[in-house]
Design a protein that fits this description.
The protein is of the alpha/beta class. The protein contains 8 helices and 5 strands; from the N terminus they run βαβαααβαβααβα. The protein binds adenosine monophosphate. The site of adenosine monophosphate has 17 residues, from helix 2 and helix 3.
Length: 187
């Protein structure tokens, strides 16, 4: 069974790779960003609150994320899964560790896709035109990148130290197919 985490700054291509690899391995792709974007269509108070937070590029609360992920993982924990966009804070990684421990399972592969900020900026702006995402503009990109540096990078550093044998650095400036190839070789 394969349980995988993808790390990387927004726009590094982790969503693209997570999707390709989930098709390849026939396991679930849990993108917390996608799950939250779907919730925006609900038109209730939570959706209004989420929209405000997400369109500014800030993080949604750990409480909401942990509850989303645990309810989804309950169904997938025996089949394998890919986490894309979670955990992004140390609180989330602690919650995930406890969840996995309580369910007698663990993470088998971690891919950290790295890329520099200038490439990211141009990629995200291109995606904003293609997907019409409200959180893809220069100001919001800056906030999202800072959230990444201030929080998520600490989480990936923590895993790199704790689980060095399953932690793989991937060069995100390569072409999509080249990155997929590298990941498949590792798997
Ligand atoms: P993404 O598509 O992964 O870039 O996520 C889009 C937005 O959803 C982020 O900028 C956050 O506002 C929110 N989000 C997604 N995953 C998380 C998470 N694990 N923790 C907090 N906020 C999140």
């Amino acid at each position: 069974m394969k349980n995988i985490i993808f790390f990387g700054p927004p726009g590094a291509g982790k969503g693209t790779q997570a999707k390709i690899i989930s098709d390849f391995l026939q396991i679930s792709h849990l993108s917390t960003g996608d799950i939250l974007r779907k919730k925006l269509n609900d038109n209730d108070n939570l959706a209004i609150e989420l929209k405000k937070i997400m369109s500014s590029g800030n993080f949604v609360s750990d409480e909401i994320l942990n509850s989303i992920v645990s309810s989804r993982l309950k169904n997938e924990k025996n089949k394998g899964f890919i986490l894309d966009g979670y955990p992004r804070t140390l609180n989330q990684s602690e919650f995930l560790n406890n969840f996995l421990f309580d369910n007698s399972t663990s993470i088998n592969y971690i891919f950290n896709i790295q890329i520099n900020f200038n490439i990211l900026k141009s990629r995200i702006l291109k995606r904003s035109q293609e997907e019409n995402r409200e959180d893809d503009n220069i100001q919001v990109i800056q906030t999202r990148y800072e959230e990444y540096l201030n929080s998520t990078q600490k989480v990936s550093d923590y895993y790199k130290k704790k689980l060095p044998t399953i932690f793989y650095e991937i060069d995100g400036s390569l072409q999509i197919e080249q990155i997929t190839q590298k990941i498949k070789e590792i798997l």
